[in-house]
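Write out the 3D structure for:
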Amino acid sequence: MKALTGQAHLVLENGKKIKMLTKQGIPSTNEPSLHDLFIAEFNHLRFSDEEKKVLSLNHRRAIFYFTKGHNHEFEQGLRMIIKMINAQKGNKLNIEAKEWGANLVYAALFSGKIDPQKEIYLHFTDSPLALIPKDYFKCMKPKNLSLHLSISPTSWMNELKSLATPTTHQLIKKLSVA
C-alpha cells in the first residue's frame, strides 16, 4: 500500500451527495523503515491475542500509512473538511465516509473548529478510527454527534476490528457498530 484511499460525502436532505475530498488515493510522502514495521512498534494499539496472530506485514504497512505516512496531506484534507462543514447552512448534517476520508472527517469534528450547533450523523465504513493521532483531538467531544460504523467483508480491517473502535479520547454520545 503506497497510497491511502478514502471518500467523504456530505449527503443533502434531497439525497444528493457532495464530495468532501477531491483525491481518491493519497500518495505517501513518508515510507516506512524496516524498524517502523517491527511488531513491537504496534504494541500501543493493544490488539487482542487473535488480532496479534493475524497482524501481517501488509496490515502493519497500512497502519503506518494511516498514522505516520501522510501528515501534510492529512492537515490539508482536515482544513478542507472543516471549511466545508462550517459552510453548510443547515444545522443537521449527514456524512458518509470510508477509510482515510472517515478519519479526516472524525478528526475535523474533534478539532474544536466546527460549529457546536450542528447536529451531525456519521456513517463510516472501513475506518480505523483508533489510528487517528491524539494531537488531532482538541475538544473533548462534539455535543450533537451520532456515529454508525461498519466493516465491509473485503476490508483489510476485518481481522483487526479493534482499529474501528474509537479510543477513550474519541468517545461520543451515540455509537452503533455493525
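The chain has a mean pLDDT of 80.
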